[in-house]
Amino acid sequence: MKTPKRVLVIEDSTMLIRPVCRMVEELGFEAVPVMSLAELEQQLASEVHFSAAVADYCLPDAPSGEALPPLFRAGIPTIVLTAHNDQQTRDDILSMPVVDYIPKDSPSALDYLMRMLKRIDRNPQIKVLVVDDSHTTRSLLRDYLRRHLYQVLEAVDAEAALQILREHSDVSLVLADYGMPGMDGAQMTSAIRRLYTHTRLAIVGISVQQDKTMTPRFLKAGADDYLQKPFTFEEFTCRITRNIEFVENLMTLEHLAHADPLTGLSNRRHLFEQVQKIRGAYGIAIIDIDHFKQINDGFGHDVGDVVIQHLADRLREHFPRAIVARFGGEEFVVLMKRDAAHPLAQRLEELRQEVEREEVDSHKGTVRYTISIGMAAATAPDIRELLRLADERLYKAKQNGRNRVCAS
Fold first, then answer.
1. Which residues form the signal peptide (predicted)?
2. Which value, to the nearest 10 degrees, does the dihedral of the CA atoms of residues 384, 389, 394, 395 take?
3. The CATH number of the domain covering residues in 268-406
4. What is 29-50 written as a DSSP string?
5. pLDDT digit string (tens) for 220-241?
6. Which class is domain 126-256?
7. 3-state class (DSSP) for residue 238
8. Do the domains 6-121 and 126-256 sit in the same CATH topology, yes or no?
9. At CA 173, angle to CA 131 and CA 322, rounded to 5?
10. Letter string b/e over residues 229-268, b meaning 16 or more CB atoms within 10 A of that residue's CB
């Protein structure tokens, strides 16, 4: 059973705690309301795991932030809400290992709170590479990033950084110091950009030098942003969050351009783009759901969509390293390089048998369906000619009674 993601909502105002709890639950968390330090201590003593906390700085029995240290000792990422926006309170809060603090009087306070909770949920899967020859600076940046739960990798120079990127192709952000031995930060940025586009990786330049040309040097080299030392935790947090979200948004747009919206598989356009990268012998198959119109007419188009999604899931399972695309309607295409150990024809027959055995549950009852498959194979042929041949064999499979694989 999946463990629920719980968020402590610590607030003594009933006017605020209800909308915060509601918004927390809309994000998919379980909200646990707490209205005093005494209640908080009871929750922490329960040994229940909490993914995060939203904590009012001033409670009736904790008027000066006394509720925060127990949260830090428990290792709970904490976002502080405060009605006190004076400089001293701000400094006191930011001297503690908080994720962030939010003034309650800000018109966008709740929106920003939800944004930070989303980041707490996503950031443990995001890698950030810190490149700086100063141990002190790396330690500071590591602390700031770990408050937000990022995975942190470190390098002392450009050569080490490039090696880490070769080993960790899923790094989303690089923090690049300018003044390093050997290749400087701007030169390293240029080298990274030869490997990764802005869609895949953000780069933020950092320097202590009071040089007006430093920002354009980094930006022209391919950086996305620039930070001048010394910078505050708040400025650092805002810049890093913005750049991470920028990469995420670009990747989402790229995915939407290449993906079928119903199944998440590649679309027709992406299939033709990907096939250009394949070299050597490969096979292609066209898979069609038998009597799909009868499913739509008998159960409704919404159930038809469920059946399409079911087949898409089975295709992912059977062809994890192949190119799988929804070609349109109830038709799918699988394109796979030659695999002598587990040939395409064998995999297709295994898929056909599994689909025939399974039942698909829907709100209108159980649905069973079968598939017909046409397959062709060659060495670096014209993809359109190979598709034509596979389509002819699909037609032959249907003419011969459906629910079969035709490879010749």
1. none
2. 110
3. 3.30.70.270
4. PEEEEE-SHHHHHHHHHTT---
5. 999 999 999 999 999 999 999 9
6. alpha beta
7. helix
8. yes
9. 125
10. eeeebeebbebbbebbebbeeeeeeeeeebbbeebebbbe
CATH T-level fold of 6-121: Rossmann fold (3.40.50)
Instruction: State how far Cα 306 lies from the chain centre.
Output: 24
Where along the chain do its domains lie? 6-121, 126-256, 268-406
pLDDT at 66: 95
Please report the pLDDT score of residue 167 as a whole number.
95
Residue with tokens 């950084």: 161
Least confident of 21-35, 97-111, 246-260, 390-404: 246-260
- List the end-to-end C-alpha distance of the chain, in Å, as a whole number: 47
Cβ atoms 206, 178 nearer than 8 A? yes
For residue 278, the model assigns a pLDDT of 72
* Phi, psi at 400, each rounded to 5°: -90, 15
Long-range Cβ contacts of 134-138 (<8 Å, 24+ apart): 134/177, 137/177, 137/229
H or E, element range at 20: helix 14-26
- Residues 15-31: tens digit of each pLDDT: 899 999 999 999 999 99
Q: Distance (Å, rounded) from C-alpha 161 to C-alpha 175?
A: 10
Give the 3-state secondary structure of residue 261.
coil
